[in-house]
Automatic annotation (TrEMBL), chains A, B:
Species whose genome carries this gene: Neolewinella agarilytica
Positions of the GFO/IDH/MocA-like oxidoreductase domain: 71-201
Pfam families linked: GFO_IDH_MocA_C3 (PF22725)
Gene3D superfamilies per record: Dihydrodipicolinate Reductase, domain 2, NAD(P)-binding Rossmann-like Domain
Protein name, per record: Predicted dehydrogenase
Amino acid sequence: MKDGWNARWLRLYSHVGTHMDAQKHFDVGKHITCQKPLAPTLAESKEIHRTCVRAQKRFMVHENFRFQPWHRKIKELIQAGVLGDRLHTITQRMRTGDGYGPDAYLGRQPYFRTMPRLLMFETGIHFIDVLRFLGGEVSTVFAKMRTLNPVIAGEDAAIVLLDFASGAQGIIDGNRYNEANHPDPRYTFGTTVIEGSNGTLRLSLDGTLTLQPLGEQEREVKYAHARRGFAGDCVYSIQQHFLEAFQSGSPFETNGDDYLKSLAVLEACYDSAANKQIVKL
Amino acid sequence: MKDGWNARWLRLYSHVGTHMDAQKHFDVGKHITCQKPLAPTLAESKEIHRTCVRAQKRFMVHENFRFQPWHRKIKELIQAGVLGDRLHTITQRMRTGDGYGPDAYLGRQPYFRTMPRLLMFETGIHFIDVLRFLGGEVSTVFAKMRTLNPVIAGEDAAIVLLDFASGAQGIIDGNRYNEANHPDPRYTFGTTVIEGSNGTLRLSLDGTLTLQPLGEQEREVKYAHARRGFAGDCVYSIQQHFLEAFQSGSPFETNGDDYLKSLAVLEACYDSAANKQIVKL
């Protein structure tokens, strides 16, 4: 990229290992929106963020899952109190089924096979961020990880138990080897169940959202979502958010300070799995 | 109960605190089938079993969940190899919704409110036993427990992660406060997903069982089950097993030696939750 480009901001969507170059662009006066993962390590991610702060440039992480229309609707419903005044549990279950057999991942993302950290680093981070979006800050993490397919280097299955500061709990149950019972597991990327003191919200693989207040029948919650773009057109939505916040000067929802909290949870997952114990944040 | 009764065996289905009296009946020559929980503590359960062994009397625990028709069919399918040669995960999710609000449990089982150990001791033990039935012996346990309803003494929500000696993992996710989206949550008492190297079996709340081999459509597995008696007529089935084994002299499937292994897993759950760490068995 040439320094002389007449642009006020840059989008960095290249391979994770290249984002450290972002520093150069901060230095020459560019604001940045950067694809996740930011960098191979937490230390490098922090360095990218520090560089941006030093240069007094704006920085947004392209973390699009929380911009999926179902997550926006679920957040709105929780805030409106439909589950009561106490959140009990957020359970996220993901089965993509794209990672079994000797040719796992070769078709779409062959570099998945050699990544030393796969499931949580590449995909689970989205759900960590979504759980923080819905449940608030995380206080403890316990995780177990496995490599089910022997042809790959990293983990392709993980179960993560979280405590939120609010007292709620989170469960992320991810597995890229086994399959979902739906033709398009990459629309919602999984099922989500949110339980509170007054009922349950459930998100299905086809985007259907239901509410079941305690003692009542489950009923569908209507909201706008469509098979357009990626995963409910969330890339369009995050870019819209970027432009609005950039023009108005208001904070980015997924700014560097916020996203480093999701990355700290991610690191805690790997620490917990390696050391077989709960990690406090 | 009078010692002079002309019976060769006794069924002890009374309250958990009364089963220690079983010793008297062993001493006067009775064989015993005893309802779970055997006793309030593991030590007392072991003492009941030791007494039976000393008296050279036969002893079977009335653990009926593994005799539910869906669990017999799932076991048969696993043994027939429909999931491949490696079991990945057994996930049991239970939501009974009978424990919310100020009058929780009063209608059916009011003593639930004062039990110091509720969910895992009273109900979760069934799923521990079912998971052992389907997945083999358990090598480690990690558990988190909560009391969601403040009017009760014990825990009404728990999440338990197990390692099986085979390398498979188990998840028991139980909660008696929040509800299932089915009119009769006490037919199967939950949903079960069994994943292996070649596919997935799924049990629904209405007893429907499906098989989805990797790369294929999910299809229903037909088997005999009916809304007769308790939970698929499993009480009839376990009594049939008792009579057959009693008459033939073959071992009871849920004999004392076997059931003490399920109880050891149960104790490990409470130890893990209290000490916030993995417990090895």
